[in-house]
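Posting for a labmate who doesn't have an account.
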Amino acid sequence: ARHEDAALAAYSDRVGRKVYGDQRRISIPLPKEGPVQALGTVFPAPLASCLSQIDAEAERIGKEAGIEPSSMKRIGNNYYEVDEPFFRLTGFVDGLVDLPRKTAKHAKGDELGDETVVLEVKHRMGKVKEPPEIYDIVQLSSYCRALGCTRGELVQCLRKP
């Protein structure tokens, strides 16, 4: 974790934004109804706002309803409680950061607001992988999809032997 903290601090300095959500747990409850139901309902739609804003709203809703936020599932910007899942897809995100939105047709001066970007840190011995390993890309993509984020950044760091 010490090396990840250093990498995330360096990333934060580089982009000029605070990194949050380090070691945030991903836990996607998959329904008992089967794969068609799971694929059709389990992953949230892309976020309309930053995850930090949505999390604050979920905590408020959970407190009012007496529900632990970790037992709630997000659909878009809404949360609901999940009954007993068949199983869970789990992992831990290294970090999150809210950065300006990017689009192909972004005109200069247009303000699109911020979006949450998922960060996954990988430590390398000897050299940075170019292109990155496919399993690292799959992991990062899965975390993005689980959180409803459309962007992720793989942060590769060289470590001395």
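Reply:
Got it, the structure tokens are right above this. The first strand starts at residue 19 and ends at 20.
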